[in-house]
Design brief:
disordered N terminus; elongated; 7 helices; 6-stranded mixed beta sheet; alpha+beta
């Protein structure tokens, strides 16, 4: 069984080869280079904006969601209070529920097979003793990511993906997506008012 962790490496190549029109995504100032230097490889870090990659191959649909921690919990500093820790735990639970975040046509018979999330939010400040490190954490960008693999009995019936991320995480105001499927590659932008990706 192919690991879902291969998605982030396979998708950019597929998109680059098949979708020249998406090249404009690489022109967000020089944030890509700066973030790569600091270990951030998901593109420009922009509060409110997340990215969603979708690949349909055979009967397997793989989705990769990523964005600043701010989009999911409303802050990026290391947790300081019980409320902070509760927000992170809630976000983690919501991100694990891929079936709730992504509505797929019942006729396609899709079942969530695997989920891999990364919500590491840094060290708890109450347990930190290095004040210089705390200061550094305050200004560090933190990104969340989640990957999902669905197995679909009838992939031809996959007509759309209803993205419920906006409802689960109101701090998210835009999702820029890239889609790769047999015979069709596309990209675009979703908003809370228009949160459905058409696969037709």
């Amino acid at each position: 069984m192919r690991s879902i962790r291969r998605l982030p490496f396979a998708l950019p190549l597929a998109i680059a080869l098949c979708t020249p029109a998406l090249a404009h995504d690489h022109s967000h100032d020089h944030d890509h280079d700066k973030e790569a230097e600091h270990g951030h490889s998901h593109g420009a870090h922009e509060h409110g904006v997340s990215r969603l990659d979708a690949v349909l191959e055979g009967k397997t649909l793989e989705l990769s969601l990523m964005g600043p921690a701010h989009n999911f919990v409303g802050f990026e500093h290391a947790p300081e209070t019980d409320a902070d820790r509760a927000s992170i735990a809630k976000a983690q639970a919501q991100l694990k529920d891929g079936a709730a975040l992504f509505g797929l046509p019942a006729a396609a018979g899709c079942k969530l097979e695997d989920t891999d999330i990364d919500v590491d939010h840094g060290a708890d400040k109450e347990a930190a003793h290095d004040h210089a490190h705390e200061h550094e954490d305050d200004h560090d960008h933190r990104d969340y990511s989640a990957e999902y693999r669905f197995s679909c009995q009838d992939p031809k019936a996959l007509s759309a993906i209803d993205v419920g991320v906006f409802k689960a995480f109101p701090q998210t105001t835009e999702i820029r997506f890239q889609l790769a499927m047999p015979g069709a590659q596309s990209g675009g932008s979703l908003t809370p008012e228009d949160a459905v990706i058409s696969l037709r």
